[in-house]
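Task: encode each sequence below as structure tokens.

Item 1
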Amino acid sequence: MDVNYVLAWMTGASCAFMLFGLLKSPARPRGWVGVNMLILAAMGGVWLLEPGIAGYVGGGLWAVLVLAPMLMSQAISQASMRQQFTRAVRLSTMSRLLHPWDGHWEMPAFFTALAAERRGDLDAAERYFTDCIRTSCPIGHMANVYLFRLRGQWEEYLQWVHDRHLDDLVANDLSMLALYLRALGETGNLPGLLDTFRLRREMIMGADPVSIELCALTLFAFSGHRRGADLVLNGALAGYPESMKAFWRATADLAAGHAEAREQFTHMLSSDNHTLHIAAQRRLEMPLADPRELSSEQAAEIDRLAEELEREEHYQANPRELARAYATYALVGLNVLVFVAETLLGGSMSNGAMLRLGAGDTHLVFVDHQWWRLLTAQFLHFGWLHITMNMLALLVFGRVLEARLGTWRYLLAYFVAGTAAVFFAIIPLRGHDLTVVGASGSIMGLVGAYGATSLLGWVRERARLARAQLNTVLVIVIAQTVFDQLTPQVSGIAHLSGAAVGFLVTLALLARLPAGARIANPRETTA
């Protein structure tokens, strides 16, 4: 397998898909659009001059300019959610060197302001927020909102939005929208909060789980819906500090009319977290809207949202369950051990060595009846690139499927799909001195299984996240098929048959579940 060719294909496909998503986004961040176009242009130019290194150049640029900033952005978001603002400052300072556009250059000052606010240094916080406000990027508008929040001026913030005609900005930026929803709740405009959520529902529910649940948390808390608040605080917002979780639960209790919640806010006044102190003080001084003023239809709508989010939770990757994906880790370890054995016993690029170790071969399987090769071939790999790509894919899909299906269903789908993939791949090789090796068919079986659970989740439970995941599976299968057709060394039959068998096996396994049982994590609902 030509490493340069594979890197060029993967980089081009990644940039093209990312550009498509960016151009569809209302925000359309120009920095990310420019970076992806730059990578494609650079790789195309090098391909014309020196095609033998174009993939390495494109792949290297993608790793530095796309992958590294995205991973760091994810780490920054996690640090911010946990209110680890000092860490967020360090990470954002490094990240902006790789991606200084789209407001990333101003992020260190923004997080420095949040860190100062948390420790009670309000003068420093105002100074850093003001520095951010002078910029015209989205982070400047966000800093303005946080400055209003710092002063407890939610009414003034709403007036600022309307005076500056920033309704479009609020509507198209989920971070701004979440704060706008909170401002409506803080000022007692519960009907306005519900109406705004309803108006922007499609955009909210199509976002990432954290953004969805940040918006939903505000609605649940100010409407006194404690079950809904608990749902999101134990879900995508589980990384919130316990003090902030307690604040929002107490808000839901106070809105529901539980007088003892005031004692919790009184206790929060002694917190060394100044942000929490200010918010708790407002709770004690400013009455919340009475959820009983909502109509029965409006209350039912909030109940339906809680039920919908509960269904969505089953299709999110739970970090605790992913960490317990022991079967997946065992499969990765076994594949790596076999690869080491290949290297020691003759080399991982030799057909002869592969045959001695159990590679799939038409004559040996169908004439000599060495059927065990259909299994052993799944653990052999032709070169370091082959095993690296397969093991990364196994970690991505395997952990999710193991958590979703349960260990024995997961392993059954994996091995049945892999065995079928090797079987169908060696049939056309009759009379050729070629072998079939690799876990690709097994992993495509997991992709098919992922598609099956997502399809059933959408059909039976109408889970939006399941539908989005089904679309992802279709894109992967199409992209893999195109790649297979352009790469002679890769068995497209193995990939397609593995995906199809994984899909059908999983459908058969889940079809036995009783009516009303969860599709995701079915082990939780069946004995």
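Item 2
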Amino acid sequence: MSAKEPVNILLVDDQPAKLLTYEAILAPLGENLIKASSGKEALERLLKTDIAVVLIDVCMPDLDGFELAAMIHGHPRHRKTAIIFVSAVHMTDIDQLRGYEVGAVDYVAVPIVPEILRARVSVFADLHRKTRQLERLNLELEDRVVERTSELQASTSRLRGSEEALRESDRRKDEFLAMLSHELRNALSPMRNAIEIGRERVTPDRELGWALDMLDRQVSHLTRLVDDLLDVSRITSGALEIKRERADLAEIVRAAVETIGPGLSRKNQRLHVSLPTEPILLDADVVRLNQVLQNLLDNACKFTPEGGSAWLIVEREGAQVAIRVRDSGAGISAEDLPFLFELFYQSRDASRSQRGGLGIGLSLARRLAEMHGGSLEASSEGEGLGSEFVVRLPLPGPEDGPAPPPRPAAEPAAAAAPKRILVVDDNRDAADSLTHVLRRRGHEVRTAYDGATAATTVNQHGVEVVLLDIGLPEVDGYEVARQIRKTPGGERVLLIAVTGWGQREDLERSREAGFDAHLVKPVDPRVLRRLMEQGPRAVSTAVPLR
């Protein structure tokens, strides 16, 4: 109903002359005037028509105005219809009270003043019009709310579908990366073994020695790329964890420097290391913090020209320790500096040169530093002026407990005694090459390409060490490990998983199956040798499980 649309006004009086009078007075309002000469006729009109205002004479035969008003408001459709009484006699306070009780909204006395009647009827007509407009707007609003709710529900449903699709895509990505790392590690494992075999024969051949060193560097580089990709996947999915222990920072620094040493030597670079005279103890994941320092030192080596220098400086800064890695290399442009730690970011120059990598090392290093409650920042005065990376880590307070007792100095390891070893791997290149390496070191080695006969072989030949792949056909490595542990003397066997699977759930399953250690391919021969020297209850950096 628009603001100008006329409404229906019902005029009720048993005298025709008075009806004509009401009609004449109200005609200027421009509303629809409907006449009824009795209460019965008025009710019939009300049942057929939407009435805004009813003008009723109180004194009518058969059905007076009070009774008619009560009947009108008794009908659900007309409970809000405005009723105006017209009377010449029932004008006392008692009469008016009675009229209001049956639903009247106003009284008009006779003789009627036209202006007063028009004003009162006009007020209630406009009120009815606005009420109808509000009702219509409410209905439109409800329709819009319903429509928007439906759209929102549909959008939410699509969003949930997208989230589920993203989760499924993320799950498949993690599965793909795990499978990719498994396949790559399986391929890298015989390469590493072949390098070890070749090195035992290269004493008189310097060119072949150079070639094997180059292959070793590339295998190490590929292995590190695989590890970084998996770590990034774990970080983005929130699955990466750190295992804190009280550790001497100097030992962590020395291990990182030892690892990066060959790269520095190849480029005739010098690394200057400065450590405080007093030991600095941290609550840190030794492996992960070593990974951070290796990444920074590797970058310093990579972006510093041959013959250049790098510095690793450790300083106390109040309740923190600062580890500074500075170089005299290519430097960082002001354009690249703000984006340096973003995942997969590479500067334009680095992406076009052999120095560029996947763009994940620095992002991973910063995240690992932050997981330790610290930070990693970079600075440079510009291209060609070198760069500096600063790792800041919190120092443990007195409430963190006393420092652990110093470890006794390690005694020189005696040469490993020959052992009876079983190598189980369905990858024949990996199995045969590892068998060859171990035999050349004096061990008695048997080889199996499936897990079906492994437990029997251990029992029949008195095997002391089993190097067991997990992803075997038909009977997997976990089941083989359980079978070995059940055989007589199986609890004394050093049981080592040598596998391309290195996720957290893989380690847990290895522990539950009875493995002593879990090695991820390609295996470092030095780590394997140390494990075999220490025996079934080995504790080493090779992910010991017991």
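Check on item 2: The CA atoms of residues 312 and 325 lie 5 Å apart. The two ends are 84 Å apart (CA to CA).
End of task.
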